# Entry
Amino acid sequence: MSKGLFITFEGGEGAGKTTQIRAVTEWLNGKGVEVVPTREPGGTPEAEKLRDLLVRRDGGNWTAEAEVLLFFAARHMHITDVIKPALQEGKVVICDRFTDSTRAYQAYGHGQELEFINKVNDLVLQDFKPDITFILDLPAKDGLARSERRQSEIGSDDSDSEDRFEKLDVTFHEKLRQGFLEIARREPERCVIIDALQTPSSITKEIKVLIDKKMGGNNG
Ligand code: TMP
# Structure
């Protein structure tokens, strides 16, 4: 039985997950809570190697099934080596993306069977899942505009940049959005939809209240 809290952040491109994860981590640290911020695909040396194969434009031309299995191979390493040990030590693990991203991107976005993903999920994770999932929701065109601004700021236009999925068109990103909303409808006890068009500080405020409630406190 884990004692910690497993929080995941989900959403399309440009939803502001990184900013929120940073703000929530600082806030929890300030309360003396130990936090492990991490991400998927990735979070361990092996899983980061798989990340390169999955998210870079030149990472490989995988079949849809192989791609899903690679995401779960990375996830298994991450859960075994990082997430479960941290939870057992009572820490809060905050993960940037998890299985809901595989559902949204590979199934709702790319048309892979949701049933296949859920079956692999059950096999690999059994009943392990996040305690709470924040889905940062905004229209696809707004998210894409934000992520394009970020790409031009960091000047990444080379073939090895991590934008294999970001480069897809607005129709794909709208399907993702609908996918995340459907996931939240199916699991309302775990998922919270957050309006990501709000200012970053209002979003953080909303999330803090929900985490406090989940931790059974109200201190700050
Ligand atoms: P990031 O941009 O949030 O770092 O995520 C990396 C990319 O990988 C992003 O475009 C979403 C994609 N992705 C999937 O397609 N399936 C998954 O299961 C995960 C975790 C990420």
Notes: Helices lie at 17-30, 45-55, 64-88, 99-109, 114-125, 140-154, 170-186, 200-215. Residues 5-219 form a domain with the Rossmann fold fold (CATH 3.40.50.300).
